[in-house]
Amino acid sequence: MPRPGLFRSVFGRVTLSALLVSLLSTLALFLVVQKIVDDDGRAMLAREVDTDLAGLADIYVSSDEAELRARIADRLAMNREDGERSWYLLTDGAGRRLAGNLDRWPAIASEVSEARYVVLPDGDRMFARATQLGAGARLLVGRSNYRGQALLARLAMAFAIAGAGIALLSLVAGHFAARRLRARVEVVNAAFAAVRAGRIAARAPGPGNNDELAELAANTNAMLDQVERLVEAQRAVSDQTAHEIRTPLMHLDTRILKAMEGTQDEALLRTLDQSRAEIRGVVRLLDSLLDIAGTQAMRGDLRGLAEVDLSDIAESLADLYGASAEDLGIGFHARIAPGVRARADPMQMTRLMSNLLDNAFKYVPSGGSIVLELAPGPHIVVQDDGPGIPPADRERVFERYVRLDGARGGGHSLGLSLARAIAERHELSLHVEEAAPGARFVLQPEDRDD
């Protein structure tokens, strides 16, 4: 099975989640610090502006308007060491400017002594408070906040750098943690894949960590132990059952044979001979079922296999079936590439090809033709020009006891089931294609996405 991509992998999603959490945490912390700095800066500006405004208001009350204008001019003439700017505006009841460095009254209410940030036409931003003086006069005092804005800019840069560093560390730490977890999970998956491939004794190595993955590995091994015990028990029961059934059947066949030797009754002889034939059919059925079950149990198990010359096997079968085809009036053609070798069980590969050929001979009428092809791969094709197999039945024909209409001869319809079981044991695929007319059985290596 192919490894999932980054966004489909659990470990990839965990790493990305850790990265997202770290970035969101850094952003949230910056917003909190920004709010605290901004509030503290506003409070300091408010105290400075309120102090200056109160002093100017006292001058207006204790002296006169001319003195107030003089004090505003003095303040404007001063250069502040911290680089901050000050703004003043004194207007009369008609709104005419009397003093200050602002040309017009900004959007701020003097009637309620409103205090807030105001953006000036030139783009500067000041914190100002306005108040109503006597005889309809209004006074506004404002201060810039260059230091606060510079501090916030430095904080933003610092948090951006820190956030990038935290994100990088989160990615690196998440990557290595995910790799370690993936390696431990893949050990368990490899054990399942090995068992699925037929290596029933495969187990997941027990990690030293006492955590959930160690518990998963332990439970996996315990389950595989149980599966192996069940498989061995089933195999033992099957072998014992086969022996217990086959032995009395053979004894019964022997007794029937002796009974046939002791009688001259033609009717009785025919009945006894039919009984023997049925007994032999039951034994063949039992042997075929055991062969299928045993072969399926060894699926993917390559132990006991050796390099086999499939060309020799195919040539021998071609000679054998060529003679039978001639007797039946069927054309038989063999196209066998020399030197085709594969790691296989020679007896099982012989049986696989012979079962495919037997199936073809069942359905091809006299005058038809059968083709046996062998190419490197191995790639084996058995094709006939018989009635063919409907698309709906092309998988069903590999099931046990399935028999399509028009077959020649008897049997229990287990040949194709055994052929597929042998193919799967050798990691090969067997399927049917349309031959137009007829059917084409194709045996080839399994497609693997790993």
Automatic annotation (TrEMBL):
It comes from Sphingobium cupriresistens LL01. Residues 179-232 form the HAMP domain. One of its GO terms (molecular function) is phosphorelay sensor kinase activity. The keyword S-adenosyl-L-methionine does not apply. SMART domains: HAMP, HATPase_c. Keywords: Kinase, Membrane, Phosphoprotein, Transferase, Transmembrane, Transmembrane helix, Two-component regulatory system. Its main location: membrane. Its EC number is 2.7.13.3. The chain crosses the membrane at residues 151-174. It is found in: Membrane. It catalyses: ATP + protein L-histidine = ADP + protein N-phospho-L-histidine. Residues 240-449 form the Histidine kinase domain. It is an enzyme of class 2 (transferase). The keyword Kinase applies. GO terms for cellular component: plasma membrane. This is histidine kinase.
